[in-house]
Structures are given as C-alpha cells and as structure tokens.
Amino acid sequence: MKHLKQYRIPFSGLNAGKHNFEFDVNKKFFDCYEHSIVKDGNLKAEVELQKQENLLILHFDIQGEIQLTCDTCLKEFMSPISIQERILVKFTDEDWTDNTEEVLILSKSDHELDIAELLYEYINLAVPYIVKCEEQGEGIQCDPEMLALFTSEPDSEEQKEEEIIDPRWEALRNIKNN
C-alpha cells in the first residue's frame, strides 16, 4: 500500500485556480488491489484540479492500455483505453459520509486528496462487460487452438456413454407414451 501514497494531491497549499498533475498507473498500482479486474496496464492519468474557496473540481483524462483476458479464448492482450471523468469535492465541518458518484465530501481539516480509489474505479468501470479479442481491431484474433477445443467432436467412447440411456428413464418414457 506504500505505492498508493504517490496518488495523493496536497491541495491545502495551492492558490485558487487551475493546477495540473500527472500520475502513472501500472502493474504496481493494480497489484495493490487484490480483486481488480485489470491486473496490468500502462496508463497516464492527467488530473486538472480547479481550486475554489469551498470546492475542488477535478477533471480526469486517463489514456493508455490495459491487459484484458478474452472471454472466448482466454487469450491475454493489451487493449487501448480512454477515460474522461469529472468529480466535485466539497468541504464540510459535519461528519458526512454519503459520497455520490459526482460529489466527494471532505472535512475542512483535510489537506490532501487521495485519488487512488477514484483511478481504480474509473479504470475498472471502463472495462467492457464482454471482452473479445476480435473487437479490439488491429489484427488481434482469438487463439485458434483454444477455439478448436470448443468445436472438436467428442471421442467415440464419450458418444457411447451419451447413447446409453439409464433404464429408469426409459421406463418413464414408456409410461409417458402409454
């Protein structure tokens, strides 16, 4: 978890206005999250922070590629990804824990913003629900050996086992036909 310390933005010393930050997101980042869909990648996250008196506006521009596994042939491949997101950060004196998708609440005593969790969520939510090699373009195709396993004919012994019908089922079929 020490690796995630670099994804903090100290905003308390910043003047009002826009400030830009760059973060590299790679395998070490994803290793910090045990159940991440994405296990490897090479991404650059550019964060524009606009500081106002009681509000921070963050614009995320995440570009690069992530390693995905094809749902059809289980082949691992690098897939390009492009993410643009925005979040508002409000400050309050009260104990407020009801963050939303677009608004993050911090205490007025906080002096830095940890964006590691936001980057993790944005990247994992950008992964397609169904991942296929062929949909990535650039000549990437499913593994023909793996596809051959799916379409191969069963062995003759397996066919014989399927053809043998349990006598109890056969008796039930006879009752149904009568």
Give your account of this protein's structure.
The protein has helices spanning 27-31, 116-125, 144-151, 156-163, 167-177, and strands spanning 8-10, 17-25, 41-51, 55-69, 76-92, 103-107, 112-114. The strands form two sheets. Strands 2-3-4-5-6 form a five-stranded mixed sheet. With 178 residues, the protein is α+β, with helices and mostly antiparallel strands. The mean pLDDT is 85.
Brief write-up:
The protein is of the alpha+beta class and 178 residues long. 24% of the residues lie in helices and 35% in strands.
From the structure above, extract its key features.
7 strands, two-stranded antiparallel sheet, 178 residues, 5 helices, five-stranded mixed beta sheet, 24% helix, 35% strand, alpha+beta
* Rg calc: 26 Å
Instruction: Please give the alpha-carbon distance between the first and last residues.
Output: 70 Å
Tally of DSSP β-strands: 7
Helix tally? 5
Parts with pLDDT < 50 across at least 5 consecutive residues: none
Protein structure class: alpha+beta
Share of helix, binned: 10-25%
How large a portion of the residues is in β-strands, by DSSP E?
A: 35-45%
Largest sheet: 5 strands, mixed
What is the residue-averaged pLDDT? 85
Q: How would you describe the shape?
A: elongated
